[in-house]
Amino acid sequence: MRSVTREQAIAYRLDMNHLVHRLPPGSQAQAAYVGLQDTAPRDALLGMAARMEGTTLPDWEHPSLIQTYSPRQAVYVLPARDFGVFTLGRLPPDPAAVRRVDELADSVCDVLAGQERRGAYIDGLREACASGRIALRWDTTSLYAREVPRPEIDVPEARRELCRRHVRYFGPTTPKVYAWWSGLSPADARAVWDQVADELVEVDFAGVPAWVLRTAEAPPAPHGVRLLVASDLRLLGRDRDARFIAPGLRKLAPVADTFHPNGLLVDGQIAGAWGRKSGRVDVLLSQDLTPDQYDALDAEVAALPLKSSELSVRIKACSTAPVVSPSRTPRVAARSTRARSPRRRPSS
What we know:
The chain is of the alpha+beta class. The protein has helices at 6-16, 28-31, 43-49, 83-87, 95-112, 125-128, 155-170, 175-182, 186-195, 291-303, 329-336; strands at 3-4, 36-37, 65-69, 75-79, 117-118, 134-138, 143-147, 200-205, 208-213, 225-228, 262-266, 269-277, 280-285, 310-315. It has a 5-stranded mixed beta sheet with strand order 10-11-12-13-14. Strands 1-8-9 form a 3-stranded mixed beta sheet. A 3-stranded antiparallel beta sheet has the order 2-4-3. Helix 7 crosses helix 9 and helix 8 crosses helix 9 (186-195). The chain is globular.
């Protein structure tokens, strides 16, 4: 049986999710291929910026994208052409459960009456979104719902495609993790998993069984600097043993706190945490950076789709952080007290 280390798994996920080599401008739908969780403040847009060159403020509502509760009943930005995969693909196979979803959708659509309605408190809205008949628009302050045509896709195929995407972008993975991610029950997730089993291969993932697509190839070593939003930290393993994308919320950065929930990725490893208020991006480092890495961090902040941006960098002492070389400390301290002016990202 093929063996996969945690480092190899992370390298594969980062590469598949375009967090090593960015997509060209205009690739909004590809950047959202497995969904971008849109937690406040506008995480889907910042997640897109980590994946696509030239991301701008309006890109979260590009015509190629759509929003709804999917998967895991959080607001996601999704490819509009694949709306059925992320909605009907979450329908349970039990006919009675499907009828319930359809009845809830009927009720929600009656309330909407053909109009876009503001308000997140329509009874049954979250569950009804699995019908594929309800889209959302969340602008970080208000949630709007509207009725849309039900996608024309075979429901069993939608389920299989959702499972394939999960394995392709988050492997090595397991049926248990897929159940968590999709929102299906463990039994229903396993039934869908079995339908695509011929496309998968079992591997030894750091001592436990897991699966990848048969077509998966060895990834290049990750390099570069990225500002990851909190939901993207799952790619590095958030479960107890730091293997899988879920379930769990294992702390990956020892310096992370309530105001710095996101991760600074440097050459495939978490080197600190960051947060922002408006355009001010505050980075807490758990290790020192090279001059080139500081410059890359400056460029990342300058390229964020914000009206304006400035950077502050601090090293936060913690028991598990690497020791910072005394010879480098003055350089870090100078950067921590000075706002960085936005600069154009170097072409790559």
